[in-house]
Amino acid sequence: MSEKLDHCVFKVDSIPYCVWDLNLHEKNMEFISSIDPKYFEYLAKIHYKNIESEEKLLASVALRTAYYHGLETLFTLLCATIQAPDCMFGWVLKSHPFEVRNMVEKIKKGSNDIFNKFKLDHISWHEISALIYADCSKDINMIKKITINFSRLWSNFSDDFLNKIHINEYNSIKHGFRTRLGGFSIAVGLQDTRKVPAAQVKMRAFGQSDYGTSFFSVKEIDGAPCTKTYPNFRVIRDSINWNPENMFHGLLLISASLNNVLSYLMILNGKDPNTCKLCSLENDEDYQKPWGNPVGVKSSSMNVVISSNHIRRFSNEEILEELKNISQ
Q1: What is the pLDDT of residue 238?
Q2: Contacting residues for 109 by C-beta, under 8 A, at least 6 apart
Q3: pLDDT for 2
Q4: Burial bucket for residue 182 (CB in 10 Å: 0-12, 13-18, 19+)
Q5: Structural domain span for residue 76
Q6: Cβ(48)–Cβ(59) under 8 Å?
Q7: Residues 285, 289, 293, 295: is their CA dihedral positive or negative?
Q8: pLDDT given for residue 20 in this prediction
Q9: Backbone angles phi, psi at 102, to 5 degrees
Q10: What is the pLDDT of residue 48?
């Protein structure tokens, strides 16, 4: 090979990598410029217009899926930005969802032990936002306002991204679409007679939504993880209520965030700043719209109690033996 290979070193969370190839800088710019943040804005608009149609539940879960996909994309690119702005494609290709979540958890807590190529001693959403918006305006007060608004937005987004029941819901939707569509309601009333349901007039509603999902999740028994040495678990039914309007606004803000991250990366990698556009909202309260429509009770998981006292703890060998007997 006559041409000299380039290389770039970086970490994905705490794991070091080195990528080798020709023209790494050009590949990095190609990767950055190929991502279109308007995709999530498009999904928001195309599905939200069907929320009042006969297919409103399908439209709502499409919005919900797009929202989770958008969060995953945004946080992947934000984490890649601080660790490998000169090799975004390498970082994204080598990263795994659990590593992105691990980094998001660290950033939310304000970690001092995240490797980054900006020599920052402390990494938080505010620090990342300040880095990206440092030169977005000649008005210092405007820079401060935009920095604060996006850091708060990303912190709120991270709560949704890290929420365990939300992770289970997203996996249930995208892996085999194993969900029941529609929200749930909860009402409580005092019984006059034991084992006889309370009269309807005595029931008090605590929350209701037409939109949401119900799905099955794996649950540990007495806190013992299901492993090869302890292959026992149970399944519970989780239910979540949400408002599709929140997802609509969330997707618009994800799109704006992605636009700004990508513009920053292109400028950092040598593109003319005058050709890059940054998005921001005029009113501070608009950054809270993804959580602006409460649904009362957000989630429910009502299941019978199963402990290790109720089961026999099968070993891996015992399960294999029983399966052998079944197959004979």
Answers
A1: 92
A2: none
A3: 54
A4: middle
A5: 6-327
A6: yes
A7: negative
A8: 96
A9: -60, -40
A10: 97
d(CA 102, CA 123): 13
Q: Check residue 202 and give its pLDDT.
A: 57
pLDDT at 136: 81
Give the per-residue pLDDT at 208: 73
Strand 180-181 to 15-21 pairing? unpaired
Place of tokens 């749930």: 184
Residue 302 and residue 312: Cα distance in Å, rounded?
A: 23
Res 156: pLDDT: 98
pLDDT of residue 99: 97
pLDDT for residue 200: 65
The answer to whether position 1 is within a domain reads no
| 130 lies in some domain | yes
Sign of CA dihedral 224, 227, 232, 237: positive
| Rounded-to-integer distance, Cα 149 and Cα 264, Å | 17
Measured between alpha carbons, how far is residue 62 from residues 51, 56, 189, 259 in Å?
A: 10, 10, 35, 22
Q: Are 214 and 180 in contact (CB under 8 A)?
A: yes
Residues of the chain with pLDDT under 70: 1-3, 185-192, 194-196, 198-207
Two structure tokens written together for 69: 């996909």
Would 87 be classed as within a structural domain? yes
Q: Tell whether 114 is covered by a domain.
A: yes
Number of domains in the chain: 1
- pLDDT recorded at residue 71: 98
Show Cβ contacts of residue 93 under 8 Å, excluding neighbours closer than 6 positions.
Answer: none
DSSP 288: G
How many CB atoms within 10 Å of residue 218? 11
* DSSP track, 13-68: TTEEEEEEES-HHHHHHHHHHH--THHHHHHHHHHHTTTTSTTHHHHHHHHHHHHH
Query: Is 140 within 8 Å of 240 (Cβ atoms)?
Result: no
